[in-house]
Write a structure and sequence with these properties.
It is built from seven helices and three strands, in the order αβαβαβαααα. The protein is mainly alpha-helical. β1, α2 and β2 form a beta-alpha-beta unit.
């Protein structure tokens, strides 16, 4: 990939879903400009080792699913909200007891959003935007209404006290269920 940059065919290199160790190895070979990974109030694990590594190396962070795959909008109330082919039907965070427990977390976000005079989704995006100028979240948007709401997050200002409250309400590991279904049981040889 570094040769492609040198040849002028690629301007910058980025990684997706990489660990801190992989980021270091890649960056030592050729400078990495950005990492795209899931990061939201529901998935705060990147804060443990990935984010510090990115900041040490001067690499930007592009969080995908900053609205917790739609959970943090406050609009999902039951797994029946998903269409028959919706990926979230098979996602552990959206099934059974995990769904109910995660709804309780969303209620916390919704309450704080009401105090901030914004939507839960705007609060979730504002929280990410408050994490630093090196963070550029990319929320998926299918409707104009959602786009307008997401842009409205730029108008939400969170104080240090607000950020501390959010950390207390949704600490690292608060979301119930893993990000993806465990696929280790599948036999890859057939």
């Amino acid at each position: 990939m570094g040769e492609l940059v040198a040849a002028g065919k690629v301007r910058y290199l980025g990684l997706s879903e990489a660990s801190a160790a992989t980021i270091r190895r890649a960056h030592a070979t050729h400078p990495v400009s950005a990492l795209q990974s899931e990061w939201s109030l529901f998935n705060r694990e990147p804060e443990e080792t990935v984010l510090p590594t990115l900041r040490e190396l001067g690499i930007g962070f592009v969080p995908f699913s900053p609205l917790g795959r739609g959970f943090l909008t406050g609009e999902l109330t039951t797994p029946d909200d998903f269409g028959p082919d919706d990926f979230r039907r098979s996602n552990p965070r959206f099934r059974g007891d995990n769904f109910a427990r995660n709804l309780q977390l969303v209620a916390r976000v919704t309450e704080m959003a009401a105090r901030q005079d914004c939507t839960p989704g705007q609060l979730a995006l504002a929280w990410l935007l408050a994490q630093g100028d090196d963070v550029v979240p990319i929320p998926g948007t299918k409707r104009r209404r959602s786009l307008d709401e997401n842009v409205g997050a730029l108008e939400v200002t969170l104080s240090a006290e607000d950020l501390a409250t959010i950390d207390e309400l949704l600490p690292v590991g608060a979301a119930a269920g893993p990000r993806y279904e465990d696929m280790s049981h599948l036999d890859q040889s057939t």
